[in-house]
Amino acid sequence: MIKNICCIGAGHVGGPTMAVIAEKCPDINVILVDNNKDKIDAWNGDLNNLPVYEPGLKEIVKKVRDKNLFFSYDIDNAIQKSEMIFIAVNTPTKINGEGAGMAADLKYVISCAKQIAKSAKSDKIVVEKSTLPVRTAEKVKEILINEGNKNLKFEIISNPEFLAEGTAISDLYKSDRVLIGGDNSKSGKKAVDLLVEIYKNWISEDKILRTNVWSSELSKLASNAMLAQRISSINSLSALCEKTGANIVEVSNAVGLDKRIGPEFLKSSVGFGGSCFKKDILNLVYLCKHYGLNEVADYWHSVVKINEYQKNRFSKKIIKELNNSGNNSIVLLGWSFKKDTNDSRESASIDIACELLNAGIHIIIYDPMVSDDRIFQDLSMKKVNVKSKKIKVVNSLTNALKLSNTVAILTEWDEFKDYKWENNFKIFDGRNILSLTQCYYSIGRSYEN
Ligand code: NAD
Ligand code: UGA
Fold it and tell me: Does the beta carbon of 337 sit less than 6 angstroms from any atom of ligand 2?
């Protein structure tokens, strides 16, 4: 039985996942570590200001913090104390070197493997929780064997995470499946069994899937690619709806009622965002190219290209209308990449804001959860001059609506859906949350004559 685990990476995956393990397994001590001291201080600080916002998370942290869940930046100590170590660090798209713009950057994972090799004084089971290109476990093992103490045994298993932000806690409570990939050796199987025992505290065994390591790594990339592909498929059809007078909400409903297709993930939108879909698909494209599968690479690349097209299509509609009306400003509602999260990584709002600014339009931004600092940081990363008078970030919906009567809904926050909209607003609904009669333009529901 495992008694002590640690997780390197106290972010959107490490935080909620370890909180739920600590809650469901009171006999296991869980240490969550990160090399970002501010983040660890925040995890140890005010419950209303935890670094990750997820419905239900602060209640769990309140219950288990300092009982069997600890947050620390003493990574070496946590490694030494734990029999099982999860790696849940970020794996962004590479910026430089071979595969730049496509391949996953494994530098953080590699540095964790090196740190485990350096600090470990007893056998360790290392669990890959981060999303990784297929065959990464091989590299991790190589580092542990070459750089670690030769008398120690290291087992590497793959256990990708499928939670979605905004619903992380309920996803973790009732996962559709838990995937564990391990070696076929006796010690490999034992390591998998030990992880299965942990999950069995709240997940029924029939939902726990055992595969080989490579299937597990690839299944994670494949799942994200298939999910994103559904959104790009429905978004591509939204453009056709606008030309023909069909209504994308009706089409999506009709298509999704076929049990073989299903209703989930068929909501047309301003484009998918989030830290993973784009990076994971580009990673898949890179892998396919690496193995000479150019047609397969092109197929998956088109999912990302349609997403760029969809964001751009929406910006162009706004720019055209504002140019025609002589109005020069717009309220952008929503900065997070979906509702119920404070995460704005790869949010469609960022690209749309930049396109509008480039067209000389003044933007007023309001989001109920994303901080002003984060919004300005996102814009500066796109080389926008954040001191420009063309940008205002405001702290309430009513204050935002005082500044322009043209509005674009970019995130589906309930606050925007429930607001009592008056007729004097010209609304571009990028999430189809309002009725058609309330909107000036909405995705796949506005007929172009
Ligand atoms: P994140 O950026 O929120 O958190 C990663 C954390 O790792 C950061 O706090 C960072 O400081 C820390 N870190 C990086 N290198 C470190 C090191 N060497 N030592 C200690 N700490 C280090 O990232 P995330 O969203 O939690 O994603 C983590 C992984 O999980 C990624 O591979 C991602 O693809 C995958 N994933 C994410 C989600 C999601 O919804 N965000 C869901 C499933 C899988
Ligand atoms: C996604 C997957 O859903 C998770 O299973 C996966 O674990 C995770 O990526 C990951 O690997 O990071 P997440 O990105 O957090 O989760 O959120 P989603 O609910 O998938 O939404 C992604 C984007 O697609 C959002 O911008 C959302 O608004 C958009 N979306 C979603 C649509 O436009 N239409 C839909 O029908 C569904």
Answer: yes
